[in-house]
């Protein structure tokens, strides 16, 4: 019951935060002078192409760019009627991309969930690698196991991702026949989901997951090792040994539980850093994720496209923090019972 | 008949260094209690942990044998494999540790942690284990075993946690229990009750006990056999009665001399003089509000201090004694202006006899700066109260820099002078704190507090983290400084025996209230309040013929509802402090 109430409460605070974030995103995007269309109009007028000017003027009206900023914001979100009634994010209309001259929905379509898939895979990879290695390095601290894992870890941290991507591509293709570039075989693009398409995606995911996850995994491993070492010195570990527990069970039941909290709290932070950190990798690997699109949109002041992508990343982050907060409450009774009468 | 545990010529060392335990031998007979006595660094803890082979990773047993010979067979513990040791630990030999606050995992329920022993060693099912653990909980004195089973450690008090630890150690019915300073971290009255419990369980089950302690009083109450250790070697060993009555080794004698004791008194003492008061607290209360996590419930008020009146005359020592949570530290913080009393409370400070009193509860910024030069504090933990990154010289001159006093050279000279005053060398100024022992660090803290030439020093349990012999030295130092500089001390302690020596007046606090206030002589000669009586009775005396009177302890240390009608108080009805004889006040209904 306590948990459910907390989850509901947390969900509503998340919605509230999202609202605030949307204001921030809108303001920041509108900070630089001018917008895509007024820039274009100025350019067209300079070169004397009046037909184009008319179209741009039409778009300006169509997307309410001629109105005041607060009005623009409300129309964008869908709180206020635009030229064609309520047509904002809330109603599922993501706006128009001027740069690509297509609706935002069409541009981001597939890349949205591919981004989620790639980053989730990377996060799972980070946890799957960092957890056992971190615990092992702490349990065997100052032995060759510890030193080797630290060495490999620092190597992973220090190697630029795109370089790693290129190397892996070459050798992965040469020795394991892994596909090069993209997130699926080109023949599946635009096709409905099928078993073969899924298989193709999974095979294509191997290299990107590894590349995006390596540095995160080695950083997390080092922190987990340090946390575990702190915990291993605590008296309750001695108590557990004095009970006659086997080391592996003792490690996972007691110190790991305590040392694990910071990593649960990290889930929320991992998402945005991975999305923005993987832009370069996505370009190099030709992944159809949202990163490269965001880069173009920001460069050309394509406001609806970039605002939508930023909102999407913010949503992912907020969902991540919400999940980690709820998990923390489940994991740590000290948070759960704070204020409970003794 | 052979001994239950027989340790022969045990030597233990770290890495390549010299052995820290050398040639130690002792026997534990079935059902008996053996006390390993010594100061920190004596090797007593390492020796007893060697029996379970729970040693720091770099430590190794270099030579010697540890033979366990219980009803389940004979085992040479130094030769067993790790796997075989796991069957011994928690099963045939159990252990209780020093810090009940940190010896249980904060994230697992108590019941789960205790039952685990039965899952591991008996292969018991969840429900079987639960049943057995609940019985054990009842035996160690949990009022509501089922509730305790589902509690987390942070929901229990220190005494209750140590009871849970004892239950954990006892649930597998071992024939040998190793208790490593099991009561050092507890209040005196809780200590008395936990010791009583261990003794009772021992009588019931016939289990043998190795008790590691630095407190001869605890030894006198618990042990049949004593082994005194110093610097890794056994100094003296034999029956407790013999050693406690007539210590043969000079080191044992030294331990005896240093042990603080509540002296026998045959007269009342002189009350604290009423003139030239340096500090005066009148009607000081402090209420904290604990915000309720549930919106519809009222916030909870916590009365840390209720109507405290105290006077400290110049050059004297006022001691506040009480268990943790009694409000003694809050009172001291208010006296230092670190915390504001509730409206109505008054704290007055006079720099000298004629000076206008400074209202500590209501100071301007300038007044506060001036006050801070005159009132300083010495903290409890000498290990964490000095920054490990600052040289001694920087730590000591910092107060002068803050108050912009003197040139750099003058500041350094002052620091050197203060070091000499506290019995250290001026050439230690360039060192970092890690190069000093606990006692030396506490001297440094005192020297730092003295840098501004204060008139009042608040000492917050300055000796409770130290060995008895070091404690003795620090108390002597404080006395000497008081005599030569006419310092006034506000001394916070949970230990009546320490206070007996240094205080001119003692205020005993319980639940935010001063329950009895008198000069120490009067307090020990004629204690009136049941709680004071319990505190005095709970003090373990290093005399085998004067065991702790557990009944008296239980009577006074229980909740105020269980006291005699005359002393009872509740949240709403609080008797006032009545002066029974000059300088002797007791909170009672007259």
Detailed description of the structure:
The complex is a heterodimer of chains A (about 350) and B (about 600). With about 350 residues, chain A is mainly alpha-helical. Chain A has a domain at about 105-335: Orthogonal Bundle (MetI-like fold). Chain A has 15 helices and two strands. Chain A has helices at about 1-30, 35-45, 50-60, 70-75, 105-140, 145-160, 160-175, 195-230, 235-245, 245-255, 255-275, 280-285, 290-300, 305-330, 335; strands at about 95, 100-105. Chain B has about 600 residues and is α/β, with parallel strands linked by helices. Chain B has three domains: about 5-90 and about 175-260, Rossmann fold (3-Layer(aba) Sandwich), CATH 3.40.50; about 105-175, no CATH class; about 275-525, Rossmann fold (3-Layer(aba) Sandwich). In chain B, strands 16-17-18-13-19-20-22-21 form an eight-stranded mixed β-sheet, sandwiched between helices. Chain B has a six-stranded mixed β-sheet with strand order 6-7-8-3-9-10, with helices on both faces. In chain B, strands 2-1-4-5 form a four-stranded antiparallel β-sheet. In chain B, a hairpin with a 2-residue loop joins β21 (about 575-580) and β22 (about 585). In chain B, α3 (about 110-120) crosses α4 (about 125-140), α4 crosses α6 and α13 (about 390-400) crosses α14. The longest helix of chain B has 18 residues, at about 190-205. Chains A and B meet through α9 of A and α2 and α3 of B.
What's the quick description here?
The complex is a heterodimer of chains A (342) and B (590). Chain A is mostly helical.
């Amino acid at each position: 019951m306590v948990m459910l109430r907390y989850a509901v409460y947390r969900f509503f605070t998340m919605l509230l935060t999202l609202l605030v974030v949307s204001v921030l995103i809108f303001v920041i995007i509108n900070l630089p002078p001018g917008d895509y269309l007024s820039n274009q109009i100025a350019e067209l007028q300079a070169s004397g192409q009046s037909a184009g000017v008319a179209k741009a003027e039409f778009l300006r009206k169509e997307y309410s760019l001629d109105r005041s900023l607060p009005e623009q914001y409300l129309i964008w979100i869908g709180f206020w009627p635009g030229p064609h009634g309520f047509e904002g994010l809330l109603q599922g209309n993501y706006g128009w991309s001027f740069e690509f001259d297509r609706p935002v929905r069409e541009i981001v379509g597939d890349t949205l969930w591919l981004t989620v898939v790639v980053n989730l895979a990377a996060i799972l990879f980070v946890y799957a690698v960092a957890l056992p290695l971190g615990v092992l390095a702490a349990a065997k601290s100052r032995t060759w196991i510890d030193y080797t894992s630290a060495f490999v870890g620092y190597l992973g941290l220090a190697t630029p991702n795109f370089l790693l991507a290129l190397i892996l591509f070459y050798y992965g293709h040469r020795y394991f026949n892994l596909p090069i570039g993209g997130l699926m075989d080109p023949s599946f693009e635009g096709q409905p989901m099928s078993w073969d398409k899924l298989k193709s995606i999974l095979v294509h995911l191997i290299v990107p997951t590894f590349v995006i996850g390596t540095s995160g995994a080695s950083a997390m491993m080092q922190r987990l090792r340090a946390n575990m070492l702190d915990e291993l010195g605590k008296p309750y570990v001695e108590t557990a040994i004095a009970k006659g527990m086997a080391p592996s069970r003792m490690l996972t039941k007691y110190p790991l539980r305590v040392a694990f909290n910071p990593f649960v709290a990290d889930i929320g932070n991992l998402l945005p850093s991975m999305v923005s950190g993987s832009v370069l990798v996505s370009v190099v690997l030709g992944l159809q994720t949202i990163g490269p699109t965001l880069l173009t949109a920001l460069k050309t002041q394509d406001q609806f496209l970039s605002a939508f992508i930023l909102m999407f990343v913010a949503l992912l982050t907020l969902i991540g923090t919400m999940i980690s907060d709820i998990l923390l409450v489940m994991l740590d009774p000290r948070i759960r019972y704070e204020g409970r009468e003794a | 008949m052979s001994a239950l545990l027989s340790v022969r010529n045990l030597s233990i060392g770290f890495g390549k260094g010299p052995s820290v335990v050398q040639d130690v031998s002792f026997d534990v007979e079935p059902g008996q209690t053996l006390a390993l006595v010594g100061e920190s660094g004596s090797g007593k803890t390492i020796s007893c942990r060697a029996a379970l082979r729970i040693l720091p990773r770099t430590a190794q047993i270099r030579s010697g044998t540890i033979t366990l010979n219980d009803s389940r067979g004979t085992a040479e513990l130094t030769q067993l494999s790790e796997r075989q040791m796991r069957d011994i630990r928690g099963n045939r030999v159990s252990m209780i540790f020093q810090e009940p606050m940190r010896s249980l995992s904060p994230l697992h329920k108590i019941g789960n942690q205790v039952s685990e022993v039965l899952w591991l060693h008996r292969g018991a099912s969840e429900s079987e284990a639960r049943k057995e653990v609940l019985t054990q909980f009842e035996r160690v004195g949990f009022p509501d075993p089922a509730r305790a089973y589902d509690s987390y450690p942070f929901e229990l008090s220190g005494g209750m946690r140590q009871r849970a630890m004892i239950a954990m150690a006892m649930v597998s019915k071992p024939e040998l229990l190793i208790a490593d300073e099991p009561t050092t971290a507890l209040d005196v009255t809780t200590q008395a009750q936990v010791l009583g419990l261990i003794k009772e369980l021992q009588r019931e089950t016939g289990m043998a006990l190795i008790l590691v302690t630095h407190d001869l009083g605890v030894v006198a109450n618990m042990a049949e056999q004593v082994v005194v250790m110093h610097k890794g070697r056994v100094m003296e060993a034999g029956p407790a009665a013999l050693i406690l009555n007539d210590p043969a080794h000079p080191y044992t004698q030294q331990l005896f001399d240093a042990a603080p004791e509540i002296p026998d008194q045959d007269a009342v003492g002189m009350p604290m003089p009423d003139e030239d008061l340096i500090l005066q607290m009148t009607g000081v209360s402090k209420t904290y509000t604990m915000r309720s996590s549930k919106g519809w419930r009222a916030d909870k008020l916590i009365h840390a201090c209720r109507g405290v009146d105290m006077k400290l005359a110049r050059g004297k020592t006022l001691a506040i004694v009480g268990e943790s949570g009694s409000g003694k530290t809050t009172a001291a913080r208010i006296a230092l202006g670190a915390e504001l009393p509730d409206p109505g409370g008054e704290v007055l400070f006079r720099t000298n006899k004629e000076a206008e009193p400074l209202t500590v509860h209501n100071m301007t910024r300038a007044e506060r700066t001036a006050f801070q030069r005159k009132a300083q504090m010495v903290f409890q933990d000498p290990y964490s109260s000095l920054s490990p990154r600052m040289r001694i010289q920087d730590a000591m001159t910092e107060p002068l820099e803050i108050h912009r006093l003197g040139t750099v050279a003058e500041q350094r000279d002052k620091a050197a002078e203060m070091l000499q005053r506290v019995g250290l060398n001026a050439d230690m100024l360039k060192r970092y704190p890690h190069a000093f022992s606990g006692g030396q660090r506490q001297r440094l803290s005192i020297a730092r507090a003295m840098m501004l030439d204060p008139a009042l020093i608040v000492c917050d349990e300055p000796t409770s983290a130290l060995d008895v012999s070091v404690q003795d030295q620090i108390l002597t130092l404080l006395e000497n400084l008081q005599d030569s500089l006419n310092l006034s001390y506000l001394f916070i302690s949970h230990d009546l025996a320490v206070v007996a020596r240094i205080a001119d007046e003692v205020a005993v606090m319980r639940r935010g209230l001063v329950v009895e206030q008198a000069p120490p002589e009067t307090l020990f000669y004629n204690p009136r309040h049941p709680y004071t009586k319990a505190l005095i009775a709970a003090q373990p005396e290093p005399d085998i013929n004067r065991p702790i009177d557990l009944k008296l302890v239980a009577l006074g240390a229980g909740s105020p509802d269980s006291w005699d009608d005359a002393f009872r108080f509740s949240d709403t009805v609080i008797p006032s402090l009545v002066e029974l004889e000059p300088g002797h006040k007791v909170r009672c209904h007259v």
